[in-house]
Amino acid sequence: MGQWRYVSECSVKALLWRWFRALSKLLGRGLVLCLKLIISHYPRQSCLIHVTYDANGKFDGLGAQAQRIIAIRGLASFLNVSYRQSQISQIAIHPLDGLSMPSDYTEYLGHVNNVFAFKDDCNCNSFEEKSIADFHYSHLIEILLRLLGGRSICFRITHPFEIVDLFPSIYEHVDLTSVTSKLEIFREDESKLDLVVHYRQGSGNPSANPLGRAIEHQRYQQTINKILLNSPQFRNRFSIMTDAPLGFLEFHPSKDQLNAWVGLPGFDGKTLQMYPLDSNSLFDQMDYEPSVISGGNPLVCLSILSSAKVLVMAKSSFSFVAALMNKEAIIYYPKDFWHPRVRSWVTY
Ligand SMILES: [Zn+2]
Known about the structure:
Blueprint: H1 2-40, H2 45-48, E1 49-53, H3 62-79, E2 82-84, H4 102-115, E3 128-134, H5 137-149, E4 153-159, H6 161-164, H7 169-172, H8 177-184, E5 195-199, H9 217-230, E6 238-242, E7 249-251, E8 272-274, H10 279-283, E9 291-294, H11 298-305, E10 310-312, H12 317-325, E11 330-333, E12 346-347
Parallel strand pairs: 1-2, 1-4, 3-4, 5-6, 5-10, 6-9, 10-11, 11-12
Antiparallel strand pairs: 7-8
Helix pairs in contact: 1-5, 3-12
The chain binds zinc ion.
Zinc ion binds next to loops.
């Protein structure tokens, strides 16, 4: 009896929590929409309010930073304020990126800044600047006050997701044509694939961290089997791209890259442990075994993911950015990823 009461109490609590979250999301969306309407129709707003990416905000990988830049470009259009381009100053290097030489890294940084460049909306050059780690409602109110006072500002934003995650359609209004075409040079024609699966394993021992980034193998297998059943011709051009090495690997990030790995599984402050891809388990129930692409230049990987006919995403900003660029593809989106999906994507 006591056990049943416990179960029902738990489910009532869970239900109330779900309702509370749904209600607060609804209220949040309503509030943001009201503020957006006032801001976007205010005279001269675009030369008073500017937004840009804070390149010094949080040291991170290519996917995370590219997603932030695209989201901030979209946020500027959503609010009808001016977008300003910022240069990425550093990117976390993964052990399998093949960018071990300092000159490789400098060249890579140059390519990334060239690919993810959007035009400035205005030519203003004297405004106050303010760094914001998480851009949310209160900053929309600050924008309104600035507009009323006629004082110009540029917000340097690290994370715009408190607002953008409420309206994922913001991404759909960003013109990614030039990004996609600049990426094409990194891919040789023959590497254009029908079905590409992104398998993001993350660092450390995946079996010791089952709730980490990796998606259960069974979920991948069911999704891939379903795709191949409907389109058996995809078998010939089917690959898995992964950050997992093919054998156990210990990686020693350079001193100026250590910050990128702090707090991640398998990192002790100096050395990062990378466990190999468990292909026996991953391919066990798969009707057809794909070719495996482990690591490589991230721009090449991004180009391959963003040109496939079908893309099965990982819980990863890298996948997310590739999916945004790949307008023609059928996108399979993991239902438990923390950034909400764009409407046209299929969940799995
Ligand atoms: Zn301006």
